[in-house]
Automatic annotation (TrEMBL):
Name of the protein in its database record: Ancillary SecYEG translocon subunit
Keyword Oxidoreductase part of the UniProt annotation: no
Listed transmembrane segments: 28-49
Residue ranges annotated for the Ancillary SecYEG translocon subunit/Cell division coordinator CpoB TPR domain, each copy included: 25-202
Keywords, sorted A to Z: Cell membrane, Chaperone, Membrane, Transmembrane, Transmembrane helix
Membrane topology reported for the UniProt record: Single-pass type II membrane protein
Length: 227
């Protein structure tokens, strides 16, 4: 079922206006992360598609598409076996693409620890193109919001939360959510405000940042930003 970002934000804002703040993060936090991670997946997908498109070979391509189909059908073990074979025997871009997809399948299976380890390994591999390494680090960072600490999220992705980095919007949002989840409200406000202040931030990311700033202000946990 499609998830409508704008309607979700309106629902949370209505919750804020009705002063029913207690439990707002418990109710909406997981969905905020789900909605936001779509931006990461989209950006990473574009990077990986361009990498794949530049390195196509018909046989390996067919194997990769077949493995993706298995994953889409939730045949995770079969998909992992096919991706492992492609990683070992594939040519060109396909071993790297197989590693990325296999890590995603691990996450789909609910094994966040294995997925994070796999993404981190790709992120540290200097034999992998820089854009793909960054995509892997971002995926690890987003998974760590749920299962790790703010410090772990920061170590994974803060280096990308800088002007000019293609992943800066997603990195700032992930850092803001991780800080909020950790109770570091001042730091969370700073990250969300940096999204709002960046005129290049995508509209849906900016909307979610505004929503989180409203949530922080309405909760009374941090002073309103001066401006």
């Amino acid at each position: 079922m499609a998830f409508n970002d704008d309607s979700f934000i309106r629902e949370v804002n209505e919750e804020l206006r009705s002063d029913q703040m207690k439990g707002a993060w418990r109710r909406f936090g997981r969905y905020i992360i789900v909605v936001a991670i779509l931006i990461v997946v989209g950006t990473a997908g574009k990077v990986l598609y361009e990498y794949w498109d530049d390195n196509r070979s018909s046989s390996a391509g067919d194997q990769f598409l077949a493995a993706m189909k298995l994953a889409d059908e939730n045949k995770n073990d079969e998909a992992l076996a096919a991706l492992d074979k492609l990683e070992k025997e594939g040519h060109g871009a396909y071993p790297v693409l197989a590693r990325m997809r296999a890590a995603t399948v691990q996450a789909q299976k609910g094994d966040a620890a294995a997925a994070i380890a796999a993404f981190n390994e790709i992120g540290k591999d200097n034999g992998v193109p820089a854009a793909v390494r960054d995509a892997a680090k971002m995926r690890a960072g987003w998974l760590l919001i749920e299962s790790g600490t703010y410090e772990q999220v920061s170590a994974a992705i803060e280096e990308m939360a800088v002007p000019g980095n293609a992943f800066r919007h997603s990195a700032r949002e992930a850092l803001g959510l991780a800080a909020y989840k950790a109770g570091n409200i001042v730091q969370a406000r700073q990250w969300f405000q940096s999204i709002v202040d960046d005129t290049d931030s995508p509209r849906n990311v900016t909307n979610r940042a505004h929503m989180m700033l409203d949530l922080i202000t309405a909760s009374g946990k941090a002073p309103a930003a001066q401006g």
